[in-house]
């Protein structure tokens, strides 16, 4: 966890306001407008070649080899992670809650198709069971095959990968590692107040903790999805805290929201 300890996290409390996910049409993406980024885009990283690509029922998948950030996973034209610094995002998502939660045994991951969130969770020997649920088998199999850093996690006996078939178990910790709630995206309904009330709260144990990624969280970008997610989730849970850190390959800060039932 040494790299996690070196990643500076900033506690962040979004400004109060009426922003919430009741009006998803107000949320717009500032990601790539095209399937492949233009070289003038600040997120573009010089690529030696396009290594692999694929298409599923839900999304287009591209794995690029870049000079600066290694393998870069791009889904529907939006960069998801880069090999050289994805650990910053995934360690900040996973380790604070696993350290904070007392002796967690069971973990549920929504999304996280590439396997990096599961990889970080499985570093905690006390965790006995990890269930990872994704809607897209194609991207799970694609990442299992081509992202070598996560192949050990995929073969760990504690990890159970299911596709679009969440069960009625309760868990000590639930992670939301989903795509941002953007117009027309497959995950919009998974960031709503009703989803938090009717699904997340019912799947948490009494002392359970839920933490979700909350998109770009910079000074200029936090109003797009970060503040709406925070303002939506705090209507459902009694205690919440938001935190951010900078991820170089995104050229921006990323945000997370952690909540408890009691």
From TrEMBL:
EC assignment: the record states 2.5.1.79
Q: Locate the active site.
A: 177
Domain of life, per lineage: Eukaryota
Listed InterPro entries: PABS, SAM-dependent_MTases_sf, Spermi_synthase, Spermidine_synt_N, Spermidine_synt_N_sf
The protein's UniProt keywords, in alphabetical order, are: Polyamine biosynthesis, Signal, Transferase
A GO BP term here is: polyamine biosynthetic process
Task: Check the record and name the SUPFAM superfamilies matching this protein.
Answer: S-adenosyl-L-methionine-dependent methyltransferases
Query: Is GTP-binding there in the keyword field?
Result: no
GO MF entries: thermospermine synthase activity
Q: Which Pfam families match?
A: Spermine_synt_N, Spermine_synth
Q: Which PROSITE patterns match?
A: PABS_2 (PS51006)
Question: Top EC class per UniProt?
Answer: transferase
- Where does the PABS domain start and stop, copy by copy? 33-261
Q: Could you say which residues form the signal peptide?
A: 1-20
Q: Which reaction does it catalyse?
A: S-adenosyl 3-(methylsulfanyl)propylamine + spermidine = thermospermine + S-methyl-5'-thioadenosine + H(+)
Q: Which family does it belong to?
A: Belongs to the spermidine/spermine synthase family.
**Stored HAMAP family:** Spermidine_synth
Record's protein name: thermospermine synthase
């Amino acid at each position: 966890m040494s790299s996690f300890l070196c990643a500076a996290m900033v506690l962040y409390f979004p400004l109060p306001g009426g922003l919430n996910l009741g009006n998803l049409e107000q949320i717009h993406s500032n990601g790539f407008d095209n399937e492949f980024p233009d070289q003038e885009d600040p997120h573009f990283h010089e690529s030696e070649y396009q290594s692999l690509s694929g298409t599923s029922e839900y999304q287009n998948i591209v794995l690029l080899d870049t000079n600066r950030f290694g393998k870069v996973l791009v889904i529907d034209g939006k960069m998801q992670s880069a090999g050289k610094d994805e650990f910053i995002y995934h360690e900040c998502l996973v380790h604070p809650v696993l350290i904070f939660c007392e002796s967690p045994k069971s973990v549920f991951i929504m999304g996280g198709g590439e396997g990096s969130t599961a990889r970080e969770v499985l570093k905690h020997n006390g965790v006995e069971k990890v269930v990872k649920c994704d809607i897209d088998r194609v991207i799970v199999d694609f990442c299992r095959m081509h992202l070598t850093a996560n192949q050990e996690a995929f073969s760990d006996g504690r990890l159970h990968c299911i596709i679009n078939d969440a069960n009625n178990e309760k868990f000590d910790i639930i992670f939301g590692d989903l795509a941002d709630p953007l117009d027309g995206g497959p995950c919009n309904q998974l960031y709503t107040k009703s989803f938090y009330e009717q699904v997340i709260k019912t799947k948490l144990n009494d002392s359970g903790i839920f933490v979700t990624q909350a998109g770009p969280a910079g000074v200029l970008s936090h109003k797009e999805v970060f503040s709406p997610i925070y303002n939506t989730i705090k209507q459902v849970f009694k205690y919440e805290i938001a935190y951010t850190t900078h991820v170089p390959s995104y050229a921006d800060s990323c945000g997370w929201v952690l909540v408890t039932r009691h």
